[in-house]
Amino acid sequence: MAGDSTRSVHEAEPFDEETGSVTAPIFETATFGFTKAEDVPKAVSGEKGYTYSRWDNPTVVRLEKKLAAFERGGGAAAFSSGMAAISTSVLSFVKKGGHVLAIRDLYGGTYSLMHELLPGMGIGTDLADTEDFGALERGVRENTKIVYVESPTNPTLKLVDLAKAAKLAHRSGALLFVDNTFASPINQNPLETGADVVLHSATKYLNGHADVIAGGAVASSDRAHRVRMTRRELGGTLDPLPAWLVLRGMKTMALRVRQQNENAMVLAEFLARSGKVARVHYPGLKDHPQHALARKQMRGFGGMLSFEVKGTMRDAMRFTESLKVAALAASLGGVETLVSQPANMTHTQMSAKERAKTGIPDTLVRVSVGIEDADDLVSDFGRALAAV
Ligand SMILES: *Cc1c(COP(=O)(O)O)cnc(C)c1O
Question: Phi, psi at residue 146, to the nearest 5°?
């Protein structure tokens, strides 16, 4: 199989048959006409041809092929957001009376899904301590259908042993779901270590330019088909135009992520040396408690890191305001460096008590490292820390 950079450019991007167009056409159409009525049933079943763009669309299908290839899956389903991918995939494999076991360190929207929406539908959920694999083992029940993890986690970059989690899920007949948004498919492919469904907020590294909201789920071809069938009903389909933007973004994903991996390492080492920083969370640092696991299951350590500013919530706020190259904004995975303060922005769905349990102090700053010159980032962060 070709390498990541070659596949970034060429996977699922044949020249258009009719015109020779080098880039994928944007099939901005709601519906598809037939000349032969006998072709309709195959299109409706999803076997061949197209019927209606909430179901399937050729531009979106190209994105799904590219994403499946990157994650080494048999198939994929693209969505109008990462949360649509997550909720639709979960609801494809668990029904009323079933149970979902997840780690406590979840993306905010997923946390709300587990904490409120699923229980409201008669689906049991439990959150296990992320650091304690034993808690996950003890949490599995007879009716557990899904074990749901993220690795590295948001925002404290904890890791879950994905191979062990897959074995645990499979022992009790459950599926392992992995949100792979933070790592990106360049650094980690959970399907290769036994995961069953991989989820992405394509808004982040896949698209990479902070200009689209989109999501994806990757699995075996049968499971991906099942997710696409649920998507038909729940309706979180991706429109062809943003699908095309994600396709375009993915062509530079390997390049971008490699640069982000390098920049994040430089910045993490700089922050670890700073007298104004109490603690740095980055799996690439040798003193990260799970550095050995990171080396085992990741090819690169990623562009996400977080650190605790010495002092108070206000000191951390002053730091985030004082940056000039990096911007204070939610989201991640784009070409520009962004910082956020979880207690003040992305983790307000959690109570202060729940945040404390998850190890999110008020002084924590999360960084999504971009593709700028590492020297410029280091001097920007140095200047802003001096202002604290
Ligand atoms: C952003 C994000 C999501 C949600 O994705 P949207 O595209 O915003 O719906 C889910 N998981 C993780 C880890 C994310 O960072």
Answer: -135, 130
Residues touching ligand 1 (Cβ under 6 Å) are 81-83, 107, 109, 150, 154, 179, 181-182, 201, 203-204, 213, 215, 332
Query: pLDDT (tens digit, 9 = 90+) per residue, 275-313?
Result: 999 999 999 999 999 999 999 999 999 999 999 999 999
Give 160-218 pLDDT, tens digit per residue: 999 999 999 999 999 999 999 999 999 999 999 999 999 999 999 999 999 999 999 99
Helix axes 82-93, 221-234, angle to 10 degrees: 110
Please report how the helices 240-250 and 58-70 are oriented relative to each other, as an axis angle in degrees rounded to 10: 30
Instruction: Give the number of C-alpha atoms closer than 13 A to the C-alpha of residue 330, restricted to the C-beta side.
Output: 11
SS3 assignment, position 272? helix
Q: Which of 54, 164, 279, 357 is catalytic?
A: 54
The DSSP-derived string for 110-134 is HHHIIIIIHHHTT-EEEEE-TT-HH
* 226 flagged as catalytic: no
Other CB atoms within 10 Å distance of the CB of residue 314:
12
Q: In what order do the strands lie in the sheet with 327-328?
A: 277-281, 304-309, 364-368, 338-340, 327-328
Distance CA 148, CA 169 (A): 9
- Of residues 301, 304, 376, the one with CA closest to residue 346: 304
What are the E-state strand segments in the chain? 75-79, 99-103, 124-128, 144-150, 175-179, 197-201, 215-219, 277-281, 304-309, 327-328, 338-340, 364-368
Q: d(Cα 92, Cα 175) in Å, to the nearest integer?
A: 12
Q: Rounded CA gap, 197 and 218, in Å? A: 6
Amino acid at position 328, single letter:
L
Q: At which residue do the structure tokens 């076991």 appear?
A: 101
Domains assigned to the chain = 4-250 (3.40.640.10), 253-386 (3.90.1150.10)
Other beta carbons within 10 angstroms of residue 258's beta carbon come to 17
Choose the catalytic residue: 7, 105, 107, 158: 107
Confidence of residue 1 (pLDDT cuts 50, 70, 90): low
